[in-house]
Amino acid sequence: MADDDEMLDTIETQIAYLMRMGEASRRATALKPHRALDRAAYVILRHLQEHGPQNVSAIADRLNLDGSTVTRQVTALQQDGLVERRPDPRDGRGTVIEPTETGLKQVDAVRAARRELYDRVLTGWSDDDRETLATMLSRLTQAMDTHLKKA
Question: Tell me: domain 31-150, CATH 1.10.10.10, correct?
């Protein structure tokens, strides 16, 4: 088995390649819906789809982003008709961000296209290998999230 330095070097490099290939696949795929949303828009819309309306601070906290960054991204999503701002039902002074019907349709189309792409990429992988990959990726993102929240 490789020593710890070799393993960490491999992990670091493979994650860098994975991030690069993920973006390249979004641009290069023939599946138009896959290209319809950039990474930031997709992540915000998926978060809202899974967790319901949120204020900018909650979105920023969950996604480990600065509030001003999320505000800019939400403004762009709002201009595209993918989200809308509504009064916060818990505090009428604030607003929450909610995906529109168009936003939900768009994120569903991108999600379906990405699932189709990954299904093709993972052709020949056993169900056990796919499950292991899903589990390990989930553990990695959770560990990174925990680390970033402590930093």
Answer: yes
